[in-house]
Amino acid sequence: MADDWTPDEATAARYAKYRRALKTAREMKEEIRQLALEDLRAGASTEELAALTGETAEVYRRLARAHDIEPPAAYKSRAELFRQCAGREDGESD
3-state DSSP: the chain helix, strand, coil percent, rounded to 5? Predict the structure, then answer.
C-alpha cells in the first residue's frame, strides 16, 4: 500500500455519500424493525416487507419467528405439512 494515496474529488465524494447512507441505515434500523413488527402482526407478508425495504424476506421471517408471530395461513399450512412429513418414519404413509 502506498502511504501517499489520496482519492480524487469524485472518489472521495462517493465514499462520503456511502458513509452517509450507512449512517442513515443504522439510525433507522430499530425504527424500521418496530414498524415491520407492527405490520407483520397486522398481516403483512415477509415478501411484501422485503419488497418495500430492499432486505430479504428471510430477515423478516427471522424477525417474525423471534417474536412468535404466526406465518400467514397459506404459509402455515405448508409449514405444518412439512412438519408432519418430517416426523414420519421412512416408508410410512397415511
Answer: 70, 0, 30
